[in-house]
Design goal:
single chain; Spore Coat Polysaccharide Biosynthesis Protein SpsA, Chain A; CMP-NeuNAc_synthase; Cytidylyl_trans
Length: 236
């Protein structure tokens, strides 16, 4: 089995939903659901949480995480990209464990509706696709750039985001598009350390349904996730 590590990168600050990574959901902190999903998947040699927030790290330790990484402040600002934080976390974990990890999986704490089987399936798909550099997860898009997703042009008028030579008159005829759901990311070590973004020419997709794809970025998102979580009864 390849050496695998799961990273969970959760900073303390949040403008859309205050303290969202530790906000209660089904009676436990939000981040705990992702930790428990990673544990129950039994796919990882190590699970690590990276944060600039002591309370997030304390809660992660309480839920069984043994590798706790203090994220530098410059990687935890509102404008900081997540990819450097993941790279930093993996580098620090390799120092602690004295191992190089072949497969790196990042689980976003703000997308807790994923299933444990989603994690297993995404890893298996990635590791069985020989030339893939990384994998992202997404759900079928509710709006199509070919049919009903529009943008303002330079003159201030509306136009379709993408045009085809033959106009689409039915949404069902448009090319299939997906909404990234920020749930599961998978890389091999080499591709992660070279990556400039989450998508390159050899990125593959693991499709998830909309009801498991909501990423909490607003109070409305939180209310929807809470409703679906309560309906399901459990998340991990």
């Amino acid at each position: 089995m390849p050496n695998r590590i799961c990273t969970i990168c959760a900073r303390g600050g949040s403008k859309g939903v205050k303290n969202k990574n530790i906000r209660p959901l089904l009676g436990i902190p939000l981040i705990a659901h992702t930790i428990m999903q990673a544990q129950k998947s039994k796919m990882f040699d190590f699970i690590a949480v990276s944060s600039d927030d002591d309370e997030i790290l304390r809660i992660s330790k309480q839920y069984g995480v043994k590798i706790l990484i203090n994220r530098p402040s410059e990687l935890a600002t509102d404008s900081a990209a997540k990819l450097p934080a993941i790279v930093h976390c993996v580098q620090e974990c390799e120092k602690v464990t004295e191992k190089n990890f072949q497969t790196i999986v990042d689980l976003d704490a703000t997308s807790p509706l994923r299933s444990v089987q989603d994690i297993v399936n995404a890893i298996q798909l990635f590791e069985s696709t020989r030339d893939a550099t990384n994998l992202i997860t997404a759900s079928p898009a509710r709006r199509s750039p070919y049919f009903n997703l529009v943008e303002l042009n330079e003159n201030g008028y509306i136009e379709l985001s993408k045009r085809l030579d033959k106009p689409i008159v039915r949404r069902q005829d448009a090319p299939k598009c997906f909404d990234m759901n920020a749930s599961i990311y998978v890389w091999n070590r080499e591709s992660l350390f070279k990556a400039k973004s989450a998508i390159d020419e050899k990125t593959i997709l693991y499709e998830m349904p909309e009801e498991r794809s909501i990423d909490i970025d607003s109070e409305l998102d939180y209310e929807i996730v809470q409703f679906l979580a309560e309906k399901r009864g459990r998340l991990s």
